[in-house]
Amino acid sequence: MDRFFKKTENSLKKKRVSLIMKDVKNIYCVGRNYALHAKELNNEVPTSPLLFSKPTHSLVEANGQSITLPSN
């Protein structure tokens, strides 16, 4: 019985994530907001975080799997 509930729970989580992914209209990102990370990358440490957006087609659902990035 426990196996049935686990399988049902996982199925519901996948459906919930899929619905959330479908509803995403905008992706806003904050970059270089950690001084140590900027220094690690040999980037200048900005006085304020870098804000940028990404197209919604760049959003990928991983579900605990590896994500393969295109080479180009």
Secondary-structure topology with pairs:
Blueprint: H1 2-23, E1 27-31, H2 35-40, E2 50-54
Antiparallel strand pairs: 1-2
Q: Would you mind describing this structure in some detail?
A:
With 72 residues, this protein is an alpha+beta fold. It has a two-stranded antiparallel ribbon with strand order 1-2. Helices cover 39% and strands 14% of the residues. It is built from 2 helices and 2 strands; from the N terminus they run αβαβ.
Give a quick summary of the entry.
Helix content is 39%, strand content 14%.
Strand content: 5-15%
Mean pLDDT: 76
How is the main sheet built?
2 strands, antiparallel
Count of discrete alpha- or pi-helical segments spanning 4 or more residues: 2
Compressed to H and E, one letter per element, the order equals: HEHE
Rg from C-alpha positions?
18 Å
Which strand order does the major sheet show? 1-2
**Percent helix range:** 25-40%
